[in-house]
Amino acid sequence: MQRPLLLSRDPEQYCQVIWRDPDSPSHYRCSLLNPGYVGENCLGVKIPDSHLRGYSLWPEQGPPELIQPDGPGIPDTDFLLYVRVAHTMKCHREVRSKSNYLVSLFTLLYSLTPYLNRLITYLPHSASPPPNNISLLSTTVYPQPSTIAYAACCQLDSADRPLAGTIIFCTHHLSGLHYSHSDIVMATIHELFHVLGFSGQLFKKWRDCTAGPSIGEKCSPRRQVTRRDEWGQLILTTPTVSHSLAKHLGVSEAMQGVPLEEEVRVEGPFSSHWEARLLQGSVMTATFGGAHRTQIDLITLAAFADSGWYQVNHSAAQELLWGQGSGLNFGLVTSCRSGSSDFFCVGSGLGCHYLRFDKGQCSSDPLLEGCRMYKPLANQSECWKKGNAPLSTAGNPHGEIYHSKSRCFIANLTSVLVPRRGTTPLPQVLPLRQVELTGRCYLHRCTEGSTYVQAAGSPWVPCLPGKSIQVPGYHGLLFCPWGQFCQANEDLMALPPSTTSPSSSGLLIQLALGLAGPPGYYLSKMQQQELTQTILQALVIRAGTHTCHFHSPSINSNLVFTVHMWEFPGCQGPPAEILYRALSQSLNDTPLNVDYGGATFTTDYNRWLASPGLISPNLGIVLPIGLSLILLILMGTGGTVAYRKYQASLRVSPSASYPSSGLPGSIRSLSEGMREV
């Protein structure tokens, strides 16, 4: 059984003088306590004594005097995360109200549960004394326009795996409106990934666990994790990472490694992020453009597999579209300016961000090193926000539609004829002034992998990849993007259990609705339940019948709503088959729109499955229990989160056995040598 997790104290903090006589039984033990010792901290957050091993004062001869006993520790715990909300020097100068930050903090931490549980599982390591000379590691992230949060790894175990860390959240970002809940969640995942091992100072501690008879056994330090290639670029060279990049770029041969972003520091070059030119949009790049433009990508998860500390669920990775299938030379400074890439741009004109959620301007930044891409405009660039729509039809000559299912297209559509200067205004010879090609927002729809586009007042028009099309009612052209613009709809889910059974002779019908919502919108389990009921009510109203026709409604994390329809005695209304035909036609003609939590959810597709007679019961979808964030101890503006060991949760083998109160084998200073990245 795993022992409770206890962190070690720093003897250089609590001890002022040690015994140096090698013939003394108390050699290298503490002989004089530091009168100014006030306990341990991690990035300014005080660690409770209950989380720490005790310490003693040793006389020259005789038994030691116990000053502080071991704390009880945290049972069934793999990793301790300390949380503090504060306005520090690293945070933005602007101070805002912090009345809501505790509520935001609780919501944030619990919303991380499904993410981490699906991504990584701790691997076992042999228990042995922890290493000496462990310094505090720290990273800062997302300086746009100011720091959202920064983090530190506080202690490592005997296999150099992180045991504890701290995240500092800047107060005004939790209570302000600039960043959404989803943005803060993604920023927190970025920081947790740094603490858990994606760090320039932890790369050198990664383990090679491929030699053992089973995963996690007989691990040894990796000989080389980073190096410079022939062009002087710092790269991460481990095998799973290199293979994942090759697969992402569509390259058959093995890659040398994945380029890292270099940051020049006093102590020399340092890197804890992917190269922005190559992996734009990855959760571990140094810049942050919003949760809906950020992915927890396969290459980042591959890095955790190569660390030797975790077993990774690669199927939980999100698709990274930037550079996908672009070949070996993608992201090079020498190739990004050619104008031949679907991801980079030249000049300074207006267009579309590569994910097509936003209009963008062709620009660069220091991390892109001269390469240019369409970056979202500062204001009202989001095509998926209804509030960005023009107030009147007269102010919308380009027929733009702002909607949760709208995307950005390069177009010069216009419904207004504008004569060139100096021409005779005769309708039959009216020459048009060329309308500039730019990014415009139009409604899009995907049906069986094909894309359709609609401007205001126009019918749906097929939009074939790479083609330019005309839209009825408008002059000019709309250019269809290359590549797979529509994502394939997932298959129908297994039938969920029901408390009510259909009759043996009745017709059982299953309806699955694929919904589209705001990008990056996250729903907790409770919100999923509330949205399920909201969609069901809208469906009942659309059908014009009673709720008793609909059974076992549910919605999954991919926004697929499923409900069953069948007849049973006492339910008034049309037969299920007639109801199915009417509702199917209605949904095909007009998508279902549901407003919930300030967002609009629209049906992207609907699928029906009919089966006569009884359906054998099944277990439905078993959702993971999740990563248990059980212990949350508030300390002023700080807190602690313990990751506990339960079935289907983040797991780890027994922690390393730490020496109790003496100096040998103890962890060094929790504050000495702190580096900030």
What does this structure look like?
Strand 24 (450-454) and strand 25 form a beta hairpin. The strands form 10 sheets. The protein has a 7-stranded mixed beta sheet. The protein has a 6-stranded antiparallel beta sheet with strand order 25-24-23-22-27-26, with no helix packed on it. The chain has a 5-stranded antiparallel beta sheet with strand order 29-30-28-32-31. The protein is globular. Helices cover 14% and strands 26% of the residues. Helix 6 (239-249) packs antiparallel against helix 7 (298-306). With 677 residues, it is an alpha+beta fold.
Name the beta content range.
25-35%
Largest sheet: 7 strands, mixed
- Termini Cα gap: 37 Å
DSSP helix fraction:
10-25%
Q: In terms of structural class, how would the helical and strand content be classed? A: alpha+beta
Q: How would you describe the shape?
A: globular
- Rg of Cα set: 29 Å
Q: Which sequence of strands runs across the widest sheet?
A: 33-34-7-11-10-9-35
So how many helices?
A: 9
Kindly state the number of beta strands. 35
Task: Please mark out the parts with pLDDT under 50 across 5 or more consecutive residues, or reply none.
Answer: 93-104, 125-145, 426-433, 488-505, 612-637, 644-677
Provide the residue-averaged pLDDT.
Answer: 76
